[in-house]
Structures are given as structure tokens and as C-alpha cells.
Amino acid sequence: MFYQHQYWLLVLTGVLSLFCLWRTSLWSVPSVQTSTSIQLDLSLPSPSIPRITQRVFNISGKKPINFPKKRHSSATSRYMLELYHRRPSADIVRALSPRHISGPIDHIGGGRVLEFQLPPKNPSEYLETAELLGTAGMILRVESLDYLIQPEDKRPSRRDETWRAFDVTSAVRNRKGDSLKFLVRGRVRSGGEGAILLLSYTKPKKRTPRSAEDDGSDDNSAAAADARRRKKNPCRKRPLYVDFSAINYDEWIVAPPGYDAYQCMGRCFFPFPDHLSPTKHAIVQSLLHGALQGSDPGKNTIGRVCCVPTRLAPTSLLYLDASGTLTYQYGYEDMVVVECGCR
């Protein structure tokens, strides 16, 4: 009898032990799961992209995104600033720094190979000259590795107080790809300090034919009230200075810091003075606007003729183009108001 009770006691103890083990494992699973985490790094490395391609124009008035500026060698920036103040005869000048510079090559006397990434050919631009620049005494000899420069193509190098230029126009004009390599003998630092490929372009002059709409138009109707109103606020050119930093254009325009753009302000009253050069459309629209002045305001949908620029002039800029190349352009079109008119 005693052994029978002991047997059932052992069985009960075993069942309770199994139950406790089961409960313990069941409640411990959530704690293990909550303490376990998998972390995935989804961040992508941000490549070094020229700021000009990442620029966001500030249209909404909010602070623009601050992208890192593309850095240029001090020699390139210094020379281009000198060129900007000298006002060269070329319409567009681009300064390229070497994309790659090799180490000294012993079997050619320690010379280095300079590789330049060239801009794509533009049918609206003609390459006048291409020069490889170096500080005076730095570059002694230049040879193209991609194009055999003929003896008749070689010109004596140009030298001024600071810079020496080697003519490589034929090599650039006759290139087969988008890059060009030059073998340079002399003192060329591995960082490319002072080595500049200067490309000068001209653009064909645009002829603006005289439009038939620009002819004057005789009209005998004139009112004394209109003459008095014209004296108060006539359409004319007024001062306007543009500070590039105020509109975040200093992110890609290197020089100048600003310029006189002028603006057209005032009202256009009929009959128009000759200097406002009204078109026939502007005259008809102004006559309709005046004829419907006394009618129901809801039916008069003819707007008043506006005072707008009728002739614009270019200005000179030193800026970063879409590829990040430091570029001087003599005639950056449609930047300065020359004349105002009614349209």
C-alpha cells in the first residue's frame, strides 16, 4: 500500500514537472521574439555630383536644398577670372581641368599623360582655338596621343606674364571620342595644378528680320484725358539691379556678383508714342479695351495692353555649365532690357 502511494506521487510529480516545462517554454517564446531584431542598412552612398545638375530653383520661396559645390583647382578659377576681366573676343570659353593625370613615365623622360573629358560637339558653336595652358616654365612640350599633329598645324606657344599656352586646336577638332590625352613634359603636379585645356568658341551672328508688326500705325483718334494720364505713369525702362545671391544664382554663377538688368514698368495708353513700337495686335486690343470701357464689367474681357521688354541685350557671365565646367560666355542672351514697348 505504501509503495502504491509512492508510485502515484512520483507520477503526479512528473506530470507537474512536464506541465511547468511546457508553460515555461510557451511564455518564454514571446520574450525571445521581442528581444530579437534585424537591422537592414538601406542607406545609399551619395555620389559627388556637380551642383549645377542638382540645382533646385527657388520658386516657392522656401530655402533651397543645399547641395555641395563643385570645387575647381585654384589655377583654373584664377585664370578664368583674369579672362573674364580681360573680355576676350571669343563668344564662349570653357576651361577644363584634367580628368586623370598619370604618374611619371620613365622611358619618356618622366613626362605625364593628361586626359581631358571634352564637352559634346554643338552645331551652333564653332571651335576657334584650343590651348593647353600651364604656368610659365611648367610645361615645356606637349604632344597628342590621340591625334598626330602635323608640322604645318604646329604653332609657336603663346606666353604672357604668368601663363604659357600650347596650340592643340587640330587635336581637339579631329578627335574621335569624348576624351583626349596629351603627353606633357615638364613640371606637372599629380593634382593637376596649373594644367588647363582652354576651348574658345564663336557663335554665328543672328539676324533679326524686321517684322511687319513693328511698323507704326496712324490713328487719328486721341483724347485729352488720355494725354494727361500718360504723363502720370507711362510705360518706360526703369532701374533694376539683380543680386545673384538673392535668388541663389550665385550657386552656379561665379562672376559677376550681380548686374543691371532694368525692367519695364508703367501703363500703356492709346494712342501710343512711337518709341513704344506697338504692334498692330496691340493697337487693336487697346481700341477694343477702350470701346468696352463703359459696358458691363462682366462682359469686358479685353485686357489692357502690357508694358514689356521689346529688345533685350546679352551680358557676360562666368559660370558652371550643366557638366560642371567653368565657362565664360561673352553674350549670355536676353539678360538686359534695352527698350520697352506695349504688347
TrEMBL record:
Transmembrane segments: none
Domain of life: Eukaryota
Protein name per the record: Growth/differentiation factor 5-like
The TGF-beta family profile domain, residue ranges: 207-343
Keyword terms, alphabetized: Disulfide bond, Glycoprotein, Growth factor, Secreted, Signal
One GO cellular component term noted in the UniProt record for this chain: extracellular space
Family: Belongs to the TGF-beta family.
Location(s), subcellular: Secreted
Record InterPro entries: Cystine-knot_cytokine, TGF-b_C, TGF-beta-rel, TGFb_CS
